[in-house]
Amino acid sequence: MYKKLFFIISLGFVMVSCNKNSSSNGCPYTTPTDAASAAEISTLKAYLDANSLPYTQHTSGIFYNIVTPGTGTTVPGVCSTVLVKYSGRTTTSTTPFDQNTAGVSFTLRQLIKGWQFGIPLIKKGGSIILYIPPSLGYGSAGSGAAIPPNSYLIFTIDLVDYQ
Asked: Quick check: 114 and 136 in contact, CB under 8 A?
C-alpha cells in the first residue's frame, strides 16, 4: 500500500516539475536575442549595396529578401521542425558549400542563429534569401574547409512545411 502511495506521489511531483520548466506549448526554448556587431552589419550592407541586391534589415543584423511570403496565418517558431529545401554559399563564392533540393527536416533551434531569425519571417510554401553575418552563422570557428572562419553567408531557403 505504501509503495503504491509513494509511487503515485512521486509521479505527481515529476509531472509538476516538468510543467514548471516548459513554456505553454511544451517548448523550453525562446527566440534568440543575439545581434551582429555594427562592423559586421556595415560590411554585409556594403556587400549587398555593391551587388545591387534587394534586402530588408532585421534587428538581429541579418538581411533578407522575401521572394515568396508563403500562405497561412502562422509561422514556425524556434521549437518547430521545419522541412526545407536550401542552398548555402559564402559571399566570396558562387559555388554552394551545402544544398538540399529534395527537402530535409531540422528542428529550428538546432540551426545557426541566422536561420532562427530568418525562417520565421515566412510561412509554409514561402521562399527567402538570408544574408547572415559571421556571428549569427558559424562565427570565428567556421565549419570545415567549405566555410572559413568569419564567413558572411547567403542562404536561399524554401520552407516546404513545418510542425
From this structure: yes
Closest CA to 31 of 106, 105, 113, 107: 113
Q: Which residues contact 55 (CB under 8 A, 6 or more apart)?
A: 48, 63, 64, 65, 131
CA 76 to chain centre: 10
Q: What is the pLDDT of residues 142-163, one digit of tens each?
A: 999 999 999 999 999 999 999 9
Q: Does an H or E element contain 115, and which?
A: helix 113-118
Q: Which residues contact 118 (CB under 8 A, 6 or more apart)?
A: 58, 62, 64, 128, 130, 132, 155, 157
- CA atoms of 122 and 127, how far apart (whole Å): 7
Q: Cβ distance 132 to 114 under 8 Å? A: yes
Q: Does domain 29-162 have CATH number 3.10.50.40?
A: yes
Amino acid at 130: L
pTM (whole model) above 0.90: no
Return the C-alpha cell found at 55: 534586402
Residue 4 cell numbers, joined: 503504491
> What would the pLDDT profile of 42-51 be if each residue is shown by its tens digit?
999 999 999 9
Contacts of residue 142, defined as CB under 8 A and 6 or more positions apart, other chains included, come to 148, 149, 150, 151
> What is the domain partition of the chain in residue ranges?
29-162
